[in-house]
Design goal:
This protein is about 30% helix and about 20% strand. By secondary structure, the chain is an alpha+beta fold. The strands form three sheets. The chain has a seven-stranded mixed beta sheet with strand order 1-11-10-9-6-2-3, with helices on both faces. Strand 12 (about 255-265) and strand 13 form a beta hairpin. The structure holds iron/sulfur cluster (2 copies). One iron/sulfur cluster binds near residues 243 and 244.
């Protein structure tokens, strides 16, 4: 780990240099708000932009991804045999990612990259990606990341953590991927380690003081799944849900997907698409049976997965980093902070 200082007057030239060897993603504003997207050659990341509407999970897990293809031309020796599609394996750098979104990648990794299962598409994308985060000096009103195992200056999942000091960035280079990123940009002005760390500590405390909303999770591990599953509050929680799926699509830790085959002329393509546990179709069996047939089943599943099943399975905290996107985006104001506290405080009548 080392610190470097980057004069903002040198930043754009460094990013232009980076684009010669990396596919560079960063925050940009468009008609849909701020998003992290691949940057065109003449576009610079808007590093001071507000929190992105969607999380950057699509860098590793695209909303729609071609995974296999086959020819249907029976004159071809290998007709109907699915084969991997060519992938762009250029190294990627994600600039301006918020610390809670980088922590979310580590939670998703538990699902896609573990001893029992390695998802080749997600793992390949992860291996070539460098995450360059910026500490959040002014957390938003829905940010509860400090009580969700994270925080505005968390280093978890980051290769570089930068602090915005108005006229310069102070960058804490955390991994070999981060070192390679700094070298590719030509950022090499060292900063004093002790002074820099003190500055990071001050900024972190200042930022954390501004977060005035929190969840309690201390009791979740001791609750039984059955008690929480049968708790009487699910009807009320689910009452106003319209199953739009917004909460799952904006969430950096939601990973549900669906596989779909499409054919056109003599070509077949297998796609992986985002799906949502909030949709009735997600669990609709070919037989017609649906184990989550009503919205109370689906709403309960979302919260039980994030706040109980994940916690029990991995013992790595909850499957939520407190970004607050689902709170801000839900059209009927269903709030995971309230549901988490209901679950945490629930006592079954004896
Ligand atoms: S965003 Fe709100 S209304 Fe839409 S599915 Fe999620 S909880 Fe339900
Ligand atoms: S559940 Fe809501 S607050 Fe938690 S990580 Fe997902 S979008 Fe963010």
């Amino acid at each position: 780990m080392n610190f470097i200082t980057i004069d903002k007057n040198d930043w754009a030239a460094g990013i232009d240099q980076l684009k010669k060897t990396y596919l560079v993603f960063g925050p940009v504003q468009d008609e849909n708000g701020c998003q992290i997207k691949p940057l065109a050659p003449d576009v610079q990341p808007e590093m001071g932009a507000p929190a992105t509407v969607m999380s950057p999970k699509s860098v590793l897990f695209p909303q729609t991804e071609k995974i296999l293809t086959a020819t249907l031309d029976e004159s071809s020796k290998d007709h109907h045999i699915m084969k991997p599609v060519d992938k762009n394996d250029t190294p990627r750098a994600v600039l301006g990612i918020r610390p809670y979104d980088a922590k979310a990648v580590q939670l998703v990794k538990l699902n896609f990259d573990n001893p029992d299962y390695k998802d080749p598409y997600w793992c390949d994308a992860y291996d070539i990606t460098t995450f360059v985060g910026v500490g959040v000096n002014r957390p938003g009103p829905c940010d509860f990341s400090t009580s969700a195992g994270c925080g505005p200056f968390s280093e978890q999942g980051l290769d570089v953590l930068m602090a915005d000091l108005d006229d310069r960035y102070l960058a804490k280079v955390l991994t070999p991927k981060g070192e390679a990123w700094a070298a590719a940009c030509g950022f090499d002005t060292p900063a004093d380690t002790a002074e820099s760390q003190t500055l990071f500590d001050i900024l972190q405390k200042e930022a954390e003081k501004q977060i005035n909303t929190a969840i309690s999770t201390d009791n979740l591990a001791q609750k039984t799944i059955l008690d929480l599953y049968e708790a009487p509050f699910w009807d009320d929680v689910a009452f106003s849900c319209i199953n739009c799926g917004t909460c799952t699509f904006v969430c950096p830790t939601c990973w549900c997907f669906d596989i779909q085959d499409e054919t056109k002329h003599q070509t077949a393509v297998r796609f992986r698409n985002w799906d949502s546990c909030m949709s009735p179709l997600f669990t609709h069996h070919a037989s017609g049976h649906n184990p989550r047939e009503s919205k109370i089943h689906r709403v309960r599943q979302r919260f039980m997965h994030k706040l109980k099943y994940f916690l029990d399975k991995y013992d790595q905290g909850i499957m939520c980093v407190g970004c607050g996107r689902c709170v801000a985006s839900c059209p009927v104001n269903i709030d995971i902070r309230e549901v988490c506290n209901l679950m945490n405080d629930y006592q079954k009548d004896k």
